[in-house]
Amino acid sequence: MQAAEPKETLYVRNLNEKIHPTLLKTKLQKLFSPYALQQVIAHRNIRMRGQAFCVFDDAAHAERALKDLQGYPFEEKPLVLAYAQSPSDRTVERKEGSEALEKHKEARLARKAARGPLKPNKAAAAALRKAKGSGKAGPGDAGTNPPHKVLFIQNLPEETTVDIMQAVFSRYAGFSEVRMVPGRKGIAFVEYKTDQDAIAAREGTRGLQLSGQQLKVSYGKKT
Q: Cross-referenced PROSITE patterns, in alphabetical order (predicted)?
């Protein structure tokens, strides 16, 4: 099989999904900085969990990073690296100019539209089926409330703000809002558009820690 041609952008996968994207970017920047790293792209949506893109000055630096760090143990999981299928926005603009960049963005939007809406992940779908069958929340819930579009979050660090909560929970489809409880530290409510959205978010944040404290995520009571 012919080896892939080196490109300026590496596709990084098998990343620890429990790490918040902002922190993940910081850690990846530190790891890849010796290779003339230009940019790290880590999206918050469910489709891109556990994945990122690293953009380098040129293909030679990307090639060296791939050879040196393929399989490297990063946050308890070995990195899986490959050359990205398409160049980054920054690379297109640097090489071909702003007009080419706009066409590049339009093509990406067209591909995204063709994929259609994001489907719930398998874990969320399984949790929903189980919950519907039992009338109770899945294993690990604090309480026995059935699935609901409102999540009840407990054991939050005292310094937790609305902005921090939004950064964590808005990466899941259907996010609506965060409601802190005045005068009550350590708890909050997060609302999604549907029960299915909330189930996916709860599955995605299972075992999540903020400032060393593991969050307790359960379903709020239906009124």
A: RRM
In a domain, 106, yes or no: no
Read off the tokens for 76. 């308890």
Question: What's the angle, vertex CA 57, arms to CA 54 and CA 62, rounded to 5?
Answer: 55
Asked if residue 102 belongs to a domain, the reply is no
Range of the domain at 181: 150-219
In a domain, 109, yes or no: no
**What are the C-alpha distances in Å from 218 to residues 56, 87, 180?**
41, 41, 15
- What is the pTM (predicted TM-score) of this model? 0.46
Strand partners, 154: 216
What φ, ψ does residue 79 adopt, rounded to 5°?
A: -70, 140
- The domain total for the chain is 2
Helix axes 122-134, 195-204, angle to 10 degrees: 120
